Amino acid sequence: MNVADIQSKFSEVFGKTGEGIYFAPGRINLIGEHIDYNGGMVFPAAITLGTYAVVAPRKDKVIHAYSINASNLGVIGFNLSDTVYNEAHQWVNYIKGVAKYLQEEKGEFPHGLDILVYGNIPNAAGLSSSASLEMLMAHIFRCTYDLDLSPVDAALLGKRVENEYIGVNSGIMDQFSISLGKKEKAILLNCNTLDYTYYPIELKGNKIIIMYTNKRRALADSKYNERRSECDAAISKLKQFYEFDVLCDLTLEQLEAHKEALTEVEYKRTYHSISENTRVKEAAKALQQGKLQRFGELLKASHISLRDDYEVSGIELDTLVETAWKEPDVVGARMTGAGFGGSAFAIVKEESVASFIQAVGKVYKDKIGYEADFYIAEIGEGPVKLESIN
After folding, report:
1. Which of 4, 49, 123, 125 sits at 20 to 30 Å (Cα–Cα) from 220?
2. pTM score
3. Which of the following is catalytic: 174, 195, 232, 373?
């Protein structure tokens, strides 16, 4: 679906012409999984798949929202003075959450909006469709109401919506990498301090191939929060021996010195967190130095740790990744995102992309029983107003 189609659908649904069209990307995390909430380093990038919205002002204080992706739900409306979470409002709760906290910080919005949304991120693919929507709405509200809201502040706002309003104990990575995305650059981000550095993505004739399992996952209903609580339990026990703020402040030597204080599960979760943090720093350095083989080795080690120590991959993701490892012309592959379904990615020589997709796709369908979807990922910009519509 192109921009003209989205504009046309807005007119069909709302009976008027939209006045602006906006876009916010999804993200892919190259390495550094399940450590953003433990204060670790991550290495994500915005991608050119994402979420579009056409908007037009209203004269009242109501927001009416419609999603092409959830057309069966029709138009869902709420008053800007009533932004309480409502399960019946489903995806629109993300809009409500952003509106609620922005109004608390910046004052009441002077008027409402009609909003039509369309996303080309595969639903529940682990490419951060929810953070994409949050950052899209933050950008729309910022532009529409002329709000003073920096990209970092927008990311923190989105994290608050996710944590406090939606109820997912996720970290800052998704919103930050989307809000501050830059074309052909990844962000090395310290999730504890929010210090960050851009790194050019130079893959020397290779492409990033997203491999979507077509197994849906719902973060709030998955074991994501369970993993978070396991890490919190380890932190409380290890604080008997060390003074530290976040789990990734510790070294593996410190962990080994007091592993008997933890359960086996807590030890494995902690081991992953600390070792993954080290891999991220090594991976960014390897990419900067053009050492793609080393970068690929670190991707593989990351997936093994997520599979065995953090236990968040599953047969679908493991099948895609382990099959990719066996293919020629593959630099590396790993799951990306929270896991429990969702997506993995591989870095593949450009001329071998078609044969790679065919080979991995066949193995996956033979083993899992249904097809995986494949996308070539381009690294793109953060949220943007694409054009005015008049």
Report:
1. 49
2. 0.91
3. 174
